[in-house]
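In the design runs reported in the main text, the only information available to the sequence generator was the tokenized backbone. The following block is the verbatim input for one such run; it is reproduced so that readers can re-run the procedure and compare outputs position by position.
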């Protein structure tokens, strides 16, 4: 398994994040959540995209859903 790509929130564009996920890399984003800095792991299993936050794991069935999520949550820069 490739080494995870570790970034700070807003460091990469949504396209750069999606490119890394399609290549099979996990993207670990340091993000401000719940009054502190936490790590959020983004991954893709070849079919489904996942966002694993400190409080929940949610899924996106396609790239458009994942793109909307990383933009909405501020993980990617506009």
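Verbatim output:
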């Amino acid at each position: 398994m490739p080494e995870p790509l570790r970034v700070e929130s807003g460091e990469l564009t949504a396209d750069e994040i999606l490119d890394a996920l399609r290549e099979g890399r996990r993207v670990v984003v340091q993000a401000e959540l719940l009054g502190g800095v936490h790590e959020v792991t983004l991954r893709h299993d070849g079919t489904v995209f996942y966002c694993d936050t400190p409080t929940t794991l949610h899924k996106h069935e396609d790239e458009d859903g994942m793109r909307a999520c990383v933009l909405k949550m501020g993980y990617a820069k506009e």
